TrEMBL record:
One of its GO terms (molecular function) is G-protein activated inward rectifier potassium channel activity. It is found in: Membrane. GO terms for biological process: nervous system development; potassium ion import across plasma membrane; regulation of monoatomic ion transmembrane transport. It catalyses: K(+)(in) = K(+)(out). PANTHER family: G PROTEIN-ACTIVATED INWARD RECTIFIER POTASSIUM CHANNEL 1 (PTHR11767:SF16), INWARD RECTIFIER POTASSIUM CHANNEL (PTHR11767). This is G protein-activated inward rectifier potassium channel 1. InterPro entries: Ig_E-set, IRK_C, K_chnl_inward-rec_Kir, K_chnl_inward-rec_Kir3.1, K_chnl_inward-rec_Kir_cyto, Kir_TM. The chain crosses the membrane at residues 76-100, 112-130, 150-174. Keywords: Ion channel, Ion transport, Membrane, Potassium, Potassium transport, Transmembrane, Transmembrane helix, Transport, Voltage-gated channel. Residues 186-303 form the Inward rectifier potassium channel C-terminal domain. The record marks D165 as: Role in the control of polyamine-mediated channel gating and in the blocking by intracellular magnesium.
């Protein structure tokens, strides 16, 4: 067996050959194992919190944000369920008042003044609630002045209905107006490349906007995520390093009317300066690109990863 050294960038790779053969018996290259990303290319962070204690109560203390963060199917389920329960509860209250007063048995007596006219069973009480809550007011069913408990219930119904409408409709509106889908029309290059540009070794990737509407005050940042060990022996599993993509020169401020090439110069200040070509292929790290800006048509401020 003899050893040959083949130049591979700035590093060297040992290649063995058999003395009896005329060709190189080089082992097949190992397939790189696909590992889970910290941030997916759709912007979703793969982070799960555990052993925090009281996690459920923390989410419930900020119920509005929790509902907004839920998936659409759960939002629609909670929306329909809340309104259905509220409607059935209030209709039951109107039916209960009519039952206690005896209005159900005297509904067709023209000389008797009930609490709510023409309410003689639960379906009619439900229809009266829907007509008043939705401000339809057909005029066939109406509350009379001979029922003080009905007036109090009517005030309670109005306040409760306003709270439920403000909470659920506000939640749905904010969820629909979230700028997450705007990221679908902002494209990043599938791969990054390292090459010479302007006489400097540079890491480059491209970003483009598919829509005609511009991103106002667009700014781009890059984070390098990798594990490292401090001189004191502390292990940092997810250390974040900033990659300079033109902060000092203002190149990070983008005028995104056409696809642009984002550059990071690999100089002495770059985290990649001490890595060879071979080390770049085997090193475990992740680059997260953050693009921020104001949507021209809606004024929203999305953040794309």
């Amino acid at each position: 067996m003899s050893a040959l050294r083949k130049k591979f960038g700035d590093d060297y790779q040992v290649v063995t050959t058999s003395s009896s053969g005329s060709g190189f018996n080089q082992p097949p290259p190992e397939k790189k194992k696909k590992r889970q990303r910290f941030v997916d290319k759709n912007g979703r962070c793969n982070v799960q919190h555990g052993n925090l204690g009281g996690e459920t109560s923390r989410y419930l203390s900020d119920l509005f944000t929790t509902l907004v963060d839920l998936k659409w199917r759960w939002n629609l389920f909670i929306f329909i369920l809340t309104y259905t329960v509220a409607w059935l509860f209030m209709a039951s209250m109107w039916w209960f008042i009519a039952y206690i007063r005896g209005d159900l048995n005297k509904a067709h007596n023209d000389k008797y003044t009930p609490c709510v006219a023409n309410v003689y069973n639960f379906p009619s009480a439900f229809l009266f609630f829907i007509e008043t809550e939705a401000t339809i007011g057909y005029g066939y069913r109406y509350i009379t002045d001979k029922c003080p408990e009905g007036i109090i219930l009517f005030l309670f119904q109005s306040i409760l209905g306003s709270i439920v409408d403000a909470f659920l409709i506000g939640c749905m509106f904010i969820k629909m107006s979230q700028p997450k889908k705007r990221a679908e029309t902002l494209m990043f290059s599938e791969h990054a490349a390292i090459s010479m540009r302007d006489g400097k070794l540079t890491l480059m990737f491209r970003v483009g906007n598919l829509r005609n509407s511009h991103m106002v005050s667009a700014q781009i940042r890059c984070k390098l995520l990798k594990s490292r060990q401090t001189p004191e022996g502390e292990f940092l599993p997810l250390d974040q390093l900033e990659l300079d993509v033109g902060f000092s020169t203002g190149a990070d401020q983008l005028f995104l009317v056409s696809p642009l090439t984002i550059c990071h110069v690999i100089d002495t200040k770059s985290p990649f300066y001490d890595l060879s070509q071979r080390s770049m292929q085997t090193e475990q790290f992740e680059i997260v690109v953050i693009l921020e800006g104001i949507v021209e048509t809606t004024g929203e401020y999305p953040q794309m990863h």
